[in-house]
Known about the structure:
Blueprint: H1 7-26, H2 31-50, H3 61-77, H4 88-92, H5 101-113, H6 117-120, H7 122-156, E1 165-167, H8 168-185, E2 188-195, H9 198-209, E3 217-220, E4 225-232, H10 235-246, E5 254-259, H11 266-275, E6 280-283
Parallel strand pairs: 1-3, 5-6
Antiparallel strand pairs: 2-4, 2-5, 3-4
Helix pairs in contact: 1-2, 2-3, 3-5, 5-7
Amino acid sequence: MQSKYKAGxxxxxxxxxxxxxxxxxxxxxxLPDALLLSLAALWLxxxxxxxxxxxxxPATLPWQLLPGLLLAAMLWVTPERHLTWLWAWxxxxxxxxxxxxxxxxxxxxxxxxxPLRDLLGLEAWLLAGLLLAGLMLLGLSRSLELQALRxxxxxxxxxxxxxxxxxxxxxxxxxxxxxxxxxxxxxxxxLLLLHVGRRRLWPLAERLCRRLQPFENGYRLDxxxxxxxxxxxxxxQAERRRQVLLDDLEDRxxxxxxxxxxxxxxxxxRRAFKxxxxxxxxxxxxxxx
Length: 289
């Protein structure tokens, strides 16, 4: 196994598919057919270059829509040449994708099957529709199963390999553990909440997590909010360390600091953080709910 997530095998499969699409484009008899196959080959090749390079995969609207649109367009333009590609809809539904893409591809599949009546004949057309619907249901069930598995894994796994950046559910457990430890062993433990623009969240999270101590953690709470659990000997060290961590932050980043033993409720602090108007606020004590 080349990597933990088999990225090398996935990349090789995508490159092989890109080569096959390029060959079909080179042998296409019409210009629209050649253009569509060339776009498909380009999409496969670019996707292959992105596999394994980041903990995130392309999730923009055009990127998610393009595979289904290309497949439907090829079945519309030259159905007599790409008729066997009709069954690729079941495979397309199994790929990792947002849930909203699944019904979109289902509509495209129906729209690409409907015009084939004259080409196949009524009986073959109906049979193909039934088989396609059955295969797509199998693909959909597999996709939903994989999505549920991925969600369970994300709740337990690091969001960035080799960095102490965890999903929000992990924070609730760690807050309880560190708060109990602070009460028993002393020390100064702080929870930092940071609100940042969506596009700057991942770069900032990676930069901050690389500055954490091995016993400290960072968390992604939502698309705009990060949290850090910082452990110090006393308040003075905490203030110095906090200043070092936040020195290079831009003014648009909103920060809230909570001294952990006095934390009443994580949910109430997050609500207060959303209402916070000042760029920086330190909460040494908050009332319990």
